[in-house]
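User: I'll paste a sequence; please echo it back and then give the predicted structure.

Assistant: Echoing your sequence first, then the prediction.
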Amino acid sequence: METFVIIAVIILATAIGMRLIHVLNAQHDARIAAFHFSDPLPRPPGQPDDTSRRARRTDADRRGTGARSTGAASKTPRRPTR
């Protein structure tokens, strides 16, 4: 009899957990569906199109990091990439 009760409790706990996960997923899906992305804010006048650090970085800045340049500028052949 004890074994039957333990098995019933385990099955009941599993069913309750499945139902809870289902309800939480449904709420999350509803929240995602209700959220609409808007257009990004316009840039202030006088700013360039891309203001990220990567866009402002030049080749000279990249070579100044101590990395050996390759290709036509150093007249050494590049190793093929795999």
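The mean pLDDT is 76. The radius of gyration is 30 Å.
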